[in-house]
Write a structure and sequence with these properties.
The protein is globular, with a radius of gyration of 23 Å. It has a 15-stranded mixed sheet that branches. It has a two-stranded antiparallel sheet with strand order 12-13. It has 417 residues and is α+β, with helices and mostly antiparallel strands.
Length: 417
Amino acid sequence: MTLDPVHFDGIAELARRIRYDVDESDHREFAETVWNGFLDPLVHDGRTVLEPLDGLARHTAPVEDVALTGTAFETVHGLDSGTINPTTFTNGLVLDIAQAAMSSTPSELDLHRARTLVMTVHTNDATVDVDEADWEEGDEGFIRSQIRHAPHVNRFEEGVVHALALYLAESSHALEHAAEVDDLLVLDGPLYPKGLLKWADRHPELATLLAEEDQPREVVANYVELVETFVDRDVPLVGFVKNPASKVVTQVVRQQGGQAPWVDDAAFFSRVLERREPDDTGEYERDTGRLTCTNWFRSRGGVDRPLSTDGDALGVERRLDDADYEVTFCMVYDPREDVVYRLEAPHAFTKDADLREDLRLFAMQEVAAESGPPRAVSKADELARISRDEKRALRETLEESFDARRARNYDDVRWGG
C-alpha cells in the first residue's frame, strides 16, 4: 500500500493545524539558561545529582586538526556483546543468547577469535531441567560458554533473559581478558549495566527481582570487579555511549518549574554544544567544521545512583572508596551528523585532571577521525554482532533441539519474520 499525493496533502494539512509559536532560538536561549543556572550543581530533593568536576566549560576544536592529533594511548581495546534477541517457543521456553568479543587496535587475531557465550532461559514449567554447569570451553579454549536459568517472573520474560545474557557475557568476557589490555579499554555502551539497573523504575515485579535475586547482583558484582581490576592495574576503563538516553537534567528542570522542551538530556546537550555561524544571506547555519564537548560531570542521578556514594550497588561489596565507582561523563558533539555521544569513566580515573583530559582528547580525536564511535568500538561491534541470517539459523537449530516451534504471531506472517 502506498500514499497517493492526496494522502500526503492530508497529512501536511494536519501538521499545519499544530500551532508552534516558539522560535527555535527560544529553545537555544533556554538551554543556555539551564546550562548557566542549573548545572553547577544540579540539585533535586536536597541531593546533588549532577556536578562539574572542574567547573562548567565547553571546548571546541577544528575537526581536521583534532583528527590528526595524537593521543596518550598507544593501544586501545574495545568490548561489545550481541544477542539473537529474546525468542519464545511454543513449549513455553523463553531464551536469549549473547556473545561477547574484544577488539584491539592494532589488531590481535587470537584476541579477536575469543568469545564468551551465555544462554539465559526462562520457563514456567517445573519439569524443565536447565543444566547450569560451570563455564565450558570450546574452539581450542577460545570459546567459553554457559547456560543460566533466569529467575521466575510473571511478565517481562523477554527483557529479563535479554539483559541477563547480554550483561553477563559482556562483563565475564571483560574480566577474562582484562590482563590483555595495556593502555585503555572502551566498552561499547555505558560503564555499568544500565539496562538492568533501570528495572528499579520500570515495574514493581522487576524492582523486586533486582533487589532480591542473585543473578542481577552477580552481574553488578562483575562490573564492580571490573572497575577494581582496572584501578589496581592503573589502566583506564571507559564506556562510549552512542545513543545517550539519560533524562536526569530534563526531568529535574521540569520538576523545578522549567518548561524543558527536550525529549532527553542528549537533545539538551546538543543545543548547548551546537555552534551556529551566519552565512552569506545572514541566516544562521550549524558550524560543521568544529567538534565541541563539555567538561566532565559527576553523576548520581537516575540509574547512576546505585553505584554512587548515595547507593549500595545492590548490596555488592566494594573494595575501593565508594566515590571511586561513581559515574563521571562528558558529552561530545559531532556537528557533521548532528549527534551527541557520552563518554563515561569511573571517578577513580577522572579525579586525575591530566587523565581526564587525555580521555576527553581520545574521544574527540576518534570521533573526528572516524565520523562516529572510536575504531576499537566499531571493531568490537563487528566481532560481537550476530547477523540476521545467523539469528534465523540459530533459531531453526533451537527449534530442532527443543522439538518445538518458535512462537509466531501475525506480524511474523505479515513481515516474513
